[in-house]
Design a protein that fits this description.
By secondary structure, this protein is of the alpha/beta class. It is built from eight helices and twelve strands. It has a five-stranded parallel β-sheet with strand order 1-2-3-4-7, covered by helices on one side. The protein has a three-stranded parallel β-sheet with strand order 8-11-12. It has a two-stranded antiparallel sheet with strand order 5-6. Bound molecules: zinc ion (2 copies). One zinc ion (ZN) binds next to loops.
Length: about 270
């Protein structure tokens, strides 16, 4: 499958403190590449200021929404959607629903796990699992709970645990199966995330591989009937639709079916 991407629903801007480019910079790049739908989903601020080093502040919310509104006027040929990538926790429900979707009027939220609770503390799947299976059931439980909250359009990089759990074994397979079965039952699309393909590959007991997507995860996803969304997870304008064709190729390899999102999110 070698089509040119016309949609990307996962994009970060300078506001999260670890990406570059304004909304207009992304829009200009998207238009130049024939993209039709660009979803901006920067890392959400949290009302308690948690993890503020990698996300905008609550005080930036109005400016974020305004920046998107201005870009919409500047690039009428492109449908620019306003979203946010969210960390799930029950205490943030009201903030997401009333502040982000309500007052701010965002078009959608996506969920992505950058930390999950384990025995009273938050653990980062990007770096803290140390290939220790003790964390995986907590990770899976967290993802399933977030998906069940009903607030999110899709779940981003569900296989991100592979960043710091290096082997593929019975534990990772069970974790993948739990997530994928729940996703299918809930009708929640899972994201094949292209960002992991652009980061340096890592050495694992099974050989060199990309951080994510994890092939065995998506093989299980296909068996479970998961529907997928392919995104670039762009952190700089030139990556606006980067790696999306490779994500579709991966999906085709396992016979995964693309999610049918509402018309707003389709080209
Ligand atoms: Zn990021
Ligand atoms: Zn992201």
């Amino acid at each position: 499958m070698n089509r040119l991407p016309t949609v990307n629903l996962h994009t970060h801007t300078w506001r999260c403190k670890h990406a570059s480019g304004t909304v207009a910079d992304y829009a200009r790049e998207a238009v130049a590449r024939g993209v039709k739908v660009l979803g901006i989903t920067d890392h959400t601020p949290l009302p308690d200021g948690r993890w503020s080093g990698v996300r905008m502040d609550v005080a930036d919310l109005d400016a974020y929404a305004a920046e998107i509104a201005v870009a919409r006027e500047q690039f009428p040929q492109l449908r620019i959607l306003a979203g946010m990538e969210c960390e799930y926790a029950p205490e943030y429900r009201n903030f997401y629903q009333e502040e982000l979707l309500g007052r701010l009027g965002l078009d959608y939220l996506i969920a992505g796990c950058h930390a999950f609770p384990h025995e009273g503390r938050w653990v980062g799947p990007h770096g803290q699992l140390n290939s220790d299976p003790v964390f995986l059931p907590a990770y899976a439980k967290y993802i399933v709970e977030a998906m069940g909250s009903g607030m999110f359009l899709f779940y981003a990089h569900p296989d991100v645990f592979g960043c710091s759990y290096l082997p593929w074994d019975a534990h990772t397979a069970a974790c993948a199966r739990e997530i994928c079965i729940a996703a299918t039952q809930l009708g929640m699309p899972l994201e094949i995330n292209g960002y992991g393909l652009r980061k340096p590959p890592i050495d694992t007991p099974d050989g060199k591989r990309c951080l994510y997507p994890l092939l065995p995860f998506w093989e299980i996803a296909a068996e479970c009937g998961v529907r997928y969304v392919a995104t670039s997870d762009a952190h700089r304008p030139e990556d606006v639709v980067a790696s999306i064709p490779q994500c579709h190729e991966l999906a085709a390899r396992f016979g995964l079916r693309e999610a049918e999102l509402p018309p707003l999110f389709r080209a």
